[in-house]
Amino acid sequence: MSHAAEAKAQYNLNKLHKRLRRGVGQAIADFNMIEDGDKVMVCLSGGKDSYTLLDILLNLQQSAPIQFSIVAVNLDQKQPGFPADVLPGYLSQIGVDFKIVTEDTYSIVKEKIPEGKTTCSLCSRLRRGILYRTAKELGATKIALGHHRDDMIETMFLNMFYGGKMKSMPAKLISDNGEHIVIRPLAYCREKDIEKYSVARQFPIIPCNLCGSQDGLQRQVVKEMLQDWDKRFPGRIETMFQAMQNIVPSHMIDKNLFDFAGISKDSPLAVEGDMAFDKPDVPKVPVGLLQDDDEPAASVQFVELT
Ligand code: SF4
Question: Where in this chain does the record put each tRNA(Ile)-lysidine/2-thiocytidine synthase N-terminal domain (predicted)?
């Protein structure tokens, strides 16, 4: 690589790093994900997302105005071919506290689930139990997962298309037994940024399909639909993600979220105003395109929607 090309690659990596760092910092602040004195257990699968999460959190730890510690945890589920030495090697090299938990959930899943059926739901239930137990043993106060913005959008569509619910992945949640707080600091980060960052940083990726199972055809279909939209309608993904943060219950039809039955002449005015006789006011330019973004928008064509 020439000197100029090297300098350009370094410049792009810095920009990417800054954007990811800003996204993680913003999510942490918006959802109060990490507090002073926290011990954050970062769940590391060996995929691009969790490597990026760990990397950015370690970096933020250096300059954060609060003190928190990090411990990386990997669960070796004894899937055939899992390269057990890759993560310990990497984690020792970067000098982070870590624990590898070995539990043969693979055999349990194979024994309980008939051949040909999807194994992911039992597998992830077992994994969750083990990770919660590990967090308790380590005294971790937060459990950080590597799901990102695109996982959240996909999940929302999966729930709408198949589950009949408008529901995504929470950026922060409390476990059913009330003992653990789970956070998703990559909530504002784009998968394509994570992908580029992971390649540039040369993380030692462990392929995610070692067990030979798939996380359902539906997720793949939704992923492809979103990728297609992203190509054909720049800004649409960003706009949808903004929409998920900007819900107007009085303009949906969920009777549990808004007291439609109780509306009377004395009710306060609707948040978005009275539009009973209006055509919806749809911006010509997707609002997501107007946000700070390095992606070129010059070739974009817009369709009049109103
Ligand atoms: S893909 Fe394999 S490891 Fe992942 S949840 Fe499914 S069964 Fe478990």
Answer: 39-201
**Could you report the per-residue pLDDT of 174-224, keeping only the tens digit for each?**
998 899 999 999 999 999 999 999 999 999 999 876 676 555 678 889 999
CA-214 nearest atom, ligand 1: 1
More reliable by pLDDT, 29 or 297: 29
Q: What is the pTM of this model?
A: 0.89
Atom index in ligand 1 nearest the CA of residue 120 equals: 6
Can you list the domains of the chain with their CATH numbers?
A: 3-215 (3.40.50.620), 233-290 (no CATH)
Residues in contact with ligand 1 by the CB-under-6-Å rule are: 119-120, 123-124, 211, 213, 215
Task: Walk across the sheet containing 69-76 and list its strands.
Answer: 97-102, 69-76, 39-43, 142-144, 181-183, 172-174
